[in-house]
Amino acid sequence: MRKLKKRWMRRFVLVMTTVLATGNILCGCSRQEMIRTISLPDTEDKDMGISGFVIKNIQEYTYEGQSEDHLQLAWGKAGENTVCQLRYEEEGYIYREIDIHTKKTIRKEFMDERMAFNMQIAPGGKFISYEAETEEKVGPELVVFLAEEGEHMVLRKWDECLQGFSYVWSDDGNRLFSWQNGDNYAFQPDTDWCVTCYDMKTVKRDSDGKWMVEKTEFQMKGSNYAQRHILPNADGSRVYVREEYDSFSDSKNQEYPGKDEAAEEKMMRAKNWLLIPEEQKKKKVSEYSKETVWPVKYTKKGLYYQNEEGMLLLAENVEDKPSVKELFRASNMEIAICGNGDHIFHVEWIDDMQNMQISGVKLEGTQPTAKQVLYKDSCEGVEFYVSADDSAIVLRGYEYPGDDRCSFKIMKLGY
Hints:
single chain, mainly beta, five-stranded antiparallel beta sheet
């Protein structure tokens, strides 16, 4: 089995090296773009006995420019070979939609001249959420840019800028969730907080012609400083929430006295909820771990999470009576999981952190199949996700070639 697996890898790497060396490069005076579409032969070895992945094609878009470009990339709508690009230029942030076959910009919109923070492009590139300072410079505001309309919609304004917020989009790019960070020491530990859902499927103009969207707020009772995890499922119709208290208490002014069992138990307590935005329902759910955990993904199969030892676990039936199953060790890895919960991908940094390697594991029921190495590349940082239709892995990487320049790359690995 091991020899067959290595032979499959050598054949895959040979194909990748040969094809990548033939990429077309478009050079300009100050920036460089490169677009490559790679079709791979069927490399699945039937003798391996592994029900795994076959990478069918790789599409790649690379953009090289000055480090102050603050560029972000996202893949376009499912079924369309477009890339969404956001770049900071002289007049401000510019949004572009690029056809990767013709290499032409098919849409260009001015987004904002203000510096943006907490910027996130929704999957599919239809919406961009970000925080920006108001004209009055009193406090920030949360804005969503409607890419197809080229217009803005203000979702929230703050009277002061002390609160820190986190944001996450549902996999289908239709719901945005926001919540207050639980480790903000400018506020008292018992400050109440809320999870807010903005449903972009309801975007419309009001009687005054202003854009509006339906939102649902879930009020949460504050009791202490905490780590908060908000994980929507693929379409955002259900949201898992975990608030874990004092798992990082050494950074606070007030420590628990002593190291007795009561103090340890107090430090490890957590609360779990399930939110259903369409029904405006909040449900308290049972605890499934006695130790600190890091939730990864809430899927149809259940809740995936990691423990302190790096073990990846699956809590099935988390809404009622959780049943936990250990899967495999995934320490020092970044993990992405599809909405169905049966495709698991993880990144490892190899060769003294110089190269990125992405591998895939397929679940048969709750049984992991053998790990397959799917792609290797050199980069300095990467983030990735599984497409909403569970047909591709999308990777966004960057590196610094020198001379105050950055190379940004987005890849779509179809399987």
